[in-house]
Amino acid sequence: MARILVIEDEADIRQVLDYNLKSAGHEVVEAARGADGLRLIREREPDLVLLDLMLPDMPGADVCRSIKDNPATKTLPVVMLTARGEEIDRVVGFEIGADDYITKPFSVRELVLRIRAVLRRRELPVSDGPSIEFGNLRLDRAAHRAWVEGEEVELTALEFKLLVTLYERRNRVQSRAALLDEVWGLDTKISTRTVDAHVKRLREKMGAARDYIETVRGVGYRFADVPMTEALGAG
Ligand code: CA
Question: d(Cα 76, Cα 68) in Å, to the nearest integer?
């Protein structure tokens, strides 16, 4: 059972969502406009946001960015509701940072299952466990914070999870499909270009530690097996 905020301007869709989410044991909070949704996030502290991409007052993408850019809410899961063909890659991609998406018209059963999967993903132990120290890179898993050479690097929840996942499987190549499954929890047909886009931006943010993530041409990505300082010392 979770508190789910539905931000959707179409009353009939809100009604269907309200009925089915309550039937699945969730508490539902509703907003018809993006600005009201953002206010309700502060006031009601939902566990998950179901967000329509097309809202009357502001694009759903902007609402999502506001959530993900705010340190207080950046780990709040956002599931986008989109019409088919509404640039799904972009929705789940790095530009918006949504955790998942559902296309309209949606199956209620699938919607409830996807929401459950996103909520469960949030509880995965990837956020726990000891801190990681690897050469000039330090990760605090509990706090979702990262440092390179002592300087904090601002990562999104998804980028952090991607980095930790690659680290935990270091020196083993991870295919794009495996990363989509593991990091995004998606078995859907979103393009593996989403993975490339995220890795590219993650590397840019990592600066001096960027080379820890190696591209394995035609296969995927791999985290280096030894920190750079040790590699240099050994050479
Ligand atoms: Ca709409």
Answer: 8
Q: Are residues 216 and 186 in the same domain?
A: yes
Q: What is the number of structural domains in the chain?
A: 2
Q: Using 50, 70 and 90 to split pLDDT, how confident is the model at 235?
A: very low
Q: Does residue 183 have a pLDDT over 90?
A: no
Rounded to the nearest angstrom, the distance between the alpha carbon of 175 and the centre of ligand 1 is: 35
Distance 127 CA to ligand 1 centre (A): 33
**Measured in angstroms, how far is the CA atom of residue 54 from the centroid of ligand 1?**
4
Task: Determine phi and psi for 90, rounding to 5 degrees.
Answer: -70, -35
Write out the residue range of the structural domain in which residue 103 sits. 3-123
pTM of the model: 0.59
- Each residue's pLDDT tens digit, 6-18: 999 999 999 999 9
Contacts 24+ apart (CB under 8 A), 176-179: 176/220, 176/221, 178/220, 179/220, 179/221
Q: In this structure, what CATH number is given to the domain that contains residue 180?
A: 1.10.10.10
- What are the CA-CA distances from residue 101 to residues 33, 61, 83, 106, 177 (Å)? 19, 12, 10, 10, 17
Tell me how far the alpha carbon of residue 11 lies from the centroid of ligand 1, in angstroms.
10
Which of 123, 151, 183 is the endpoint of a domain?
Answer: 123
Share of the chain above pLDDT 70, in %: 86
What is d(CA 140, CA 230) in angstroms, rounded to the nearest whole number? 22
